[in-house]
Amino acid sequence: MMMGMRNDMLQREVSKPTSVASTLARFWVYFKRYWLVLTGVLILIIVSTWFQVLIPDLMGQAVNCYLTPASMANFNQQLIPGAGAGMQAGAGCWYTTVDPRWTTQDYIEGLGKLVLTMVGLYMGSSALIGLMFYLMTYAGQNVLRRMRLDLFKHMQALSLGYYTKHEAGDVMSRITNDADSIQQAVSFPLVSVLQGSLLIVWIAYSMLSQSFYYALICLAVVPFMFIATSWFSSQARKAFRNVRSSVGTVNANLQESISAVREAQAFNREDENIQAFNESNAASRDASIRAVSYTSALLPVLQALGYVSLAIVAGVGGLLLLNSQNLAGETITLGLVISFIAYTQRFNQPVAQIATMWTNIQSAIAGGERIFGLLDTNPDIVDRPNAKPMPPITGRVAFDHVYAEYEKDQPVLRDVNLVAEPGQTIAIVGPTGAGKTTIVNLIPRFYDVTQGAVKIDDIDVRDVTAATLRHQIGVVLQDSFLFSTTIKENIRYGKPEATDEEVYAAAKLAHADTFIERLPQGYDTVLGERGGGLSQGQRQLLAIARAALSDPRILILDEATSSVDTRTERLIQGALEKLLHGRTSFVIAHRLSTIRHADLVLVLKDGQIIERGKHDELLQAHGFYHDLYMSQFRRDIDFEEVDAAPQLQPARAIAE
Q1: Which of 63, 316, 324, 606 minimizes the number of CB atoms within 10 Å of its CB?
Q2: Residues 349 and 451 grouped into a single domain
């Protein structure tokens, strides 16, 4: 079922129509910051391309001016009667002067100079290309850094609702695999395609300027090359979009399997996980094969057309030379045929090179589409244009006819009204799916209401900036997240500027200092992923210390003591009494001890508050709370009544 949902999402993403021009325009937004470097690259491309175009021309001059000088002299005498002893540039030998009175040694020296000139052009072109690739790599890597940073910033700004609908592995794939596909194209492939395109145009112009009709015959296959390139590239682009999406699915499957490895081993699901990963991996393989098949087919097609073009050049030129015929009034010489053969070979090289590099380009375009698609995803929670900073709050929280929904027309909360005065502790109880978590998520504005308003100190939370609002609200979840850094930095996470003394005081308040000091490096102990190496109770103690250090005015607890034993709970409960003093707190209650100490108990069912009051009052009413207490809480023994005798483990209410 999960694989089917992933495949549906993949197909929807791949089927999205995307304009290549718009994707390239988005790339240009990043590249234009380095316009000076790109200008240098463009100049180097032009100069190095000119060198490459000039070399075939010089080869023709070598044939016309030095290897067959007598025929060339006769040719010039026919074109320019009375040309005399010398042949000036433009009369047939464009870049040199040949004198019929020259000796063999003179011709050898002239040919040697021309050969050295061509060698110098080859070397100069190579040096310029090397510098060009360095500059392009510099610009490309800076663009990639900026793109990844923008993507990460946007991921941090996306609402929680986005991450409930998109797998973490697929989101990670945007900033890793998709960005890597762009990295592989922004240096060598991109420059090669640009230079090759310019070289193709320049060679075509040079051929047309030297012999228009002969060039038209030689370039007759070019339209077929462009048609083949256009068709294969369009198919490859669709296929590479599929590849990038399937790779995201593989990453999502992998990330989920690694995170749930304990559950997989506990329930003997290793074989099923392997099979699921094998299916997604096979889908990625098939998508890659389809994509590469298009790009691989393009190269032999273009090579075949290139050989046809070369055959046309040699065949037509040879026939004209053998029959001593002109072509529409244009004289065809052996040097011209040699030049056109070299031009055609040079013309086919960038065409084949572009086809080879086209795989990287198409993959980069597909990766760019996915990255820009994520960047174009608007967060559900954004600050209003006129939002102001939240002033220091006292902690009065009011829900005014609140409705909330995650999916359209499927309300999770319906007409919720409540008021929590500063310093009060509000316990929220109810069966699974009643809306308990949704209520507490609306306070720091992780989600927005669809109707009504949530107000803090009579200020609508939508009228203030989310950052200043959340800065004054502390959250301790049932499964708090710890980072792969030191214990000290984990506690300091909510208040980076806190001193070491403040960190120690917060840990002591949460009664976490005892086990921390027993660790080899104490507060400088580096934790494993998600707090690996610590028990669940120890992780919860650190989460409470983190909340205590941030000193919030409103505290949200998803039963912070639910993951600790009774002895540890007794210690934490005393710390929480100090922590909650003077603060408004909302507690999703799982234990009876929390409910008994609450100033107000809210009973939720089907998204509505059906009962409210103190614990004893609700019991006496013999309503829904009484039934819930009898079925879920009755066996839960308050820690104040625990004695030395063995006791039953406290039962927990089902929570969201």
Answers
A1: 324
A2: no
